[in-house]
Amino acid sequence: xxxxxxxxxxxxxxxxxxxxxxxxxxxxxxxLLGLRYGEWLGAPVLESSIAASAMAQDEFGHSRLFxxxxxxxxxxxxxxxxxxxxxxxxxxxLDQPFESWTDFVAxxxxxxxxxxxxxxxxRNSSLMPLRRFVPKLIQEEVFHLQHAQGWMSLMxxxxxxxxxxxxxxxxxxxxxxxxxxxxxxxxxxxxxxxxGIQDIDSDGLRTRWMEQVGPLVEQGHLxxxxxxxxxxxxxxxxxxxxxxxxxxxxxxxxxxxxDAETFAQIECFSTHSYPxxx
Amino acid sequence: xxxxSDEALKxxxxxxxxxxxxxxxxxxxxxxxxxxLLVQADTELMSAPSYYMAARSAxxxxxxxxxxAVIQDELGHAHITYQLLxxxxxxxxxxxxxxxxxxxKNPYGFDQPLETWVELVVANAYFDRxxxxxxxxxxxNTSYGPWxxxxxxxxxxxxxxxxxxxxxxxxxxxxxxxAKEEIQRAADxxxxxxxxxxGMPDHLKRHTAQLEYKLKGKTNDELRQIWLSxxxxxxxxxxxxxxAHFDEAxxxxxxxxxxxxDYDPSQKRWKFDSPVSWDQVFERWKKRGPYNEIxxxxxxxxxxxxxxxxxxxx
Amino acid sequence: xxxxxxxxxxIWEALKEVEDPEMPISLVDMGMVxxxxxxxxxxxxxxxxxxxACPAIDFIFYDIRERLxxxxxxxxxxxxxxxxxxTKERISEEGRFILSTWxxxx
Lengths: 278, 314, 106
Description:
The complex is a heterotrimer of chains A (278), B (314) and C (106).
Chain A: H1 13-38, H2 46-75, H3 101-120, H4 128-158, H5 160-180, H6 187-194, H7 202-219, E1 226-228, E2 235-237, H8 260-271
Antiparallel strand pairs in A: 1-2
Helix pairs in contact in A: 1-2, 1-6, 2-4, 3-4, 3-5, 3-7, 4-5
Chain B: H1 6-14, H2 27-55, H3 61-87, H4 92-98, H5 117-141, H6 145-175, H7 177-197, H8 209-212, H9 220-237, E1 244-247, E2 252-255, E3 261-264, E4 269-275, H10 278-287, H11 292-300, H12 303-310
Antiparallel strand pairs in B: 1-2, 3-4
Chain C: H1 8-15, E1 33-39, E2 42-47, H2 57-70, E3 75-80, H3 93-101
Parallel strand pairs in C: 2-3
Antiparallel strand pairs in C: 1-2
């Protein structure tokens, strides 16, 4: 039975950095995902423009909660992140706007699923403030995946063109998202598990992710490296992940961060002179 | 179509009868209804890209969230209103994705770039006040039942936008300095834009089909007065100067400039010393403002390619 | 400062008059007020937001404080509760009726 921590101050020093890194990676990813979703006033149907805006707000709302934990870490003495693109730790595929609605659908399914399984792994977290807000976030995510599923099934059932475009869009972001769930046996994974911050290791997260995404891939007859073991029913990853250059603390391989136009939107939070608080 | 004559329909409406179906309408009624709904739907829709442009410079997560909530509401209102048009036999999909930019009927104010979060604040205070004024009227007075009912939700949500605008306008003005200067600069071009929003004065155009069919109940000047009576005191309480005041003798708000005047969209500047005719105003509106195409494109950009691909083309 | 004379049920009554800024329905009927406790002059309110992305937090806090100030409460603490999360089941019968007149079924 591991100890629970009422505040981030109570965390043992040995795991503080690893927890901070993960919280910041989730906060930044949700922030950036919100910006990306919010760009889609021009979805192919108005209902989805509305949905995209609603999902953007959910992501911002979630990031607001994660950033409040980040602030607690800074108060506990961890260094404040510098406001430069290269210090941002969002999932790499969110650095630039989605080029097409197909890219939106792919990210809606894959990125949201990754963030969801990470949230699920916090359900029994020893970090109490995190554990308290996580169920509400998970509740809100349900709609995101339904939205993605609706579009995926439309695209895989309507024409060969749309099916293969979707397949291509998913392939493009497949690896970075799977890596984002964490490097097996890394020091930070050990720290997170040891302190009971999350209750499942990175390979376990990937299995849960495949349980979300796998059925969609199978139903849509998409050619992607994931398969269902006919005997055990388990989802198995069909290719090994490329960890070259991977920085586990940033959960990224490249440190470029969001593109200039995106960063300009983020920077507004720190460069303005209005009396707005946070 | 109705077997009633136009006159008989108007009499029925005069007695307070609500029209519920197209079968009850005359050609004239339906045409006037479509016209007024299209203006509303297009206005709601085009406010979204314009507010989005401004939301990009929101100074905090909370303010960005409020801005996005407003954008989502506007898209939702557009959706409700295009649905009303579809129920009248129009093609919703074509209306949103098929028309050319200049065919959209939104006011000139939403053809302008909203460049900063401060402009969004003032737009919420001034433009959404115009929206509430224009939609509060049919909510009270319209003879078309489905429209009236749809406005319950829309008007309440617009009140949130308004409050968002007014609260931030007050806070930023209280802070003074650069924030207040920015509000003043925004008000300088947005206030006269709001005045113009309500169209021609009554002495030039009084009887319209929209009034005769009781699609709305108030004249342009009456609506403009309602708007001025909210916006002028708000601005004054913030210490923001606007070119209008309450005239004790006339017991109404009057403008401090000859209306209408010329506008230079490239400078976002009204030329108060250059009065123009309404024909010239209509010409400017018809030419459209600088962001008409950009905003329409931002809504329509991906529709064609995606649908073509979905349907098996390239 | 005089200590507030309101008891908890009076605070609940007052909060029934505070509307959700986005809907014509009170915070209480929305089921957003989770708990009210009064201790001396201090009033503590536990509030559950319908969504993490609530764009109106500012307004809600302000409206609660203004309404309770009218009753003489000055020392007001508002705490956001996420556990248990707010769900639609918390909306009152009256609230459901109002929402249904809005075309929203819950």
